[in-house]
Design a protein that fits this description.
Helix 4 packs antiparallel against helix 5 (about 115-130). Strand 2 and strand 3 (about 40-45) form a beta hairpin. The chain has a four-stranded antiparallel beta sheet, with helices on one face. The chain has a three-stranded antiparallel beta sheet with strand order 7-8-9. A two-stranded antiparallel sheet has the order 5-6. It has helices at about 10-15, 65-80, 85-90, 100-110, 115-130, 130-135, 145-155, 160-180, 215-225, 230-240, 245-250, 280-290, 325-335, 340-355, 360-365, 370-375, 385-400; strands at about 20-25, 30, 40-45, 50-55, 90-95, 95, 255, 260-265, 275-280. By secondary structure, it is α+β, with helices and mostly antiparallel strands. The chain contains 17 helices and nine strands. The chain is globular, with a radius of gyration of 25 Å. It is about 45% helix and about 10% strand.
Length: about 425
């Protein structure tokens, strides 16, 4: 039988606490020591010699990045080269500091002050993948043509990625100069330098998300309830909770307390970086109960299987695709609306058709309300007041509002029973 690969899940990586070696497969391990320090390790053999190659801390390197790093090491082995020796070469050529080694150290030194693990992973990815031609170059020898070689392939097709990459290269080279490892002007500087050699970066024109008017929502909700697919349940749930796509599709069973009708979205999945409590309306609780995993844990909105084997890559996530709800909406209305636009729909409904205060709606949307000083003294999140507002929104969406949504009075919360 073939050895199983990709055994770990992102959830396991985040929650495993048992000291030891936890195998992902193909030589990749999550190692947890007795102090709780968690690191990625790639184990391999060259001839009869067994070697261990550290890939970095799990706190800042996610499962996907660790797998990518292990695959790069395996490719190096297939070429007959020792990946550890190659990395030593990358760190020092003739005793001189290379861009790759210094960039990695720069990220390690600054990551504690950065916003979240995703931001750190983006830095590592861009400077390891997109800036790969620079990594083996000695810092003191990097010039304008070296930087252009990295930026030009991305400049027209991926302007945002290219612009961020340029800025990160500039910061690394500035730090190298401050450390006495290079001299002269920064070849990645934009103003007065690369601005003369590259076209002006295109600005993103996202604009406002296309939103449905509130009066059309009950018709859509009736269409969704007539369907049986997971995408319809997910979109219905997203509208009723006024949450974001990423918060919904990655929702795990252990985040829900259906007795209290509360969903706790962890801080690493919210835009503010803080835990968000959602007051669940009765229909939202029904959807969660309907889709509750048979095994009692895992994702609520799971990617549907087709036949014996799902038509997806082996490393594709088990949760619903982030495009699934949009594709469903597109099938019903063309490109008239976006899923994120329903947050605007909810906000307009609160402002135009109810007497609920603006701050309550902002809380429900997971926005930061007030300045830093004000929030330092505010401990509550107005959960029960938000519950009444969300129940009024549910009645409006389902077309069951008897007294109208602007009464400021919600139904008494119905007790939700947790499955199993």
């Amino acid at each position: 039988m073939a050895r199983q690969s990709k055994r770990l899940t992102a959830r396991q990586v985040a929650t495993l606490k048992t000291p030891g070696w936890h195998a992902d497969g193909d030589g990749l391990y999550l190692r947890i020591d007795t102090r709780g320090v968690r690191r990625w390790v790639f184990v391999f053999r060259r001839g009869t010699k067994r070697s261990e190659m550290g890939l970095g801390p799990a706190a800042s390197i996610g499962l996907a990045d660790a797998r990518a790093a292990a695959e790069r090491a395996r490719e190096t082995l297939r070429q007959g080269v020792d990946p550890i020796g190659e990395r030593r070469t990358a760190r020092a050529i003739d005793g001189l500091e290379t861009f790759g080694a210094f960039a990695d150290r720069y990220i390690d030194d600054h990551s504690a002050a950065w916003k979240n693990d995703k931001h750190i992973a983006q830095w590592r990815m861009t400077l390891q993948v997109h800036a790969a031609p620079l990594r083996l170059k000695v810092l003191a020898e990097i010039g304008t043509q070296d930087v252009l070689e990295v930026l030009k392939p991305l400049w027209a097709g991926k302007p945002e990625t290219a612009s961020r990459l340029r800025g990160r290269i500039e910061r690394v080279l500035d730090a190298a100069k401050a450390a006495g490892l290079r001299e002269g002007e920064n070849p990645a500087r934009w103003r007065g330098h690369l601005s003369h050699l590259l076209s002006k970066p295109k600005k993103l024109t996202r604009g406002h998300q296309k939103a449905m008017v509130a009066s059309d929502v009950p018709v859509l909700m009736a269409k969704l309830r007539a369907r049986s697919d997971v995408s319809a349940r997910a979109l219905e749930f997203t509208i009723l909770t006024a949450t974001r796509t990423g918060e919904v599709i990655c929702a795990l069973a252990d985040e829900f307390d259906l007795h209290a009708a509360i969903w706790k979205i962890p801080s690493d999945r919210t835009k503010t970086g803080k835990e968000l409590r959602i007051a669940l309306v009765p229909r939202a609780c029904e959807i969660v109960r309907e889709l509750w995993p048979v095994e009692g844990g895992g994702f609520i909105f799971r990617r549907p299987a087709h036949g014996v084997r799902p038509p997806r890559k082996r490393d594709a996530p088990a949760y619903l695709s982030n495009a699934a709800m949009y594709e469903l909406l597109k099938g019903l209305y063309g490109q008239a609306y976006t899923v994120h636009g329903f947050r605007s729909t909810f906000r307009d409904w609160v402002g135009d058709k109810t007497d609920y205060p603006r701050e309550l709606a902002e809380h429900a949307l997971g926005h930061i309300v007030g300045d830093e000083s004000e929030n330092a003294y505010r401990r509550g999140d107005a959960l029960e007041r938000r519950r009444a507002m969300m129940q009024a929104w549910e009645r409006y969406c389902l077309g069951t509002s008897a007294r109208g949504p602007n009464t400021g009075r919600g139904r008494k919360a119905r007790t939700a029973q947790k499955p199993g």
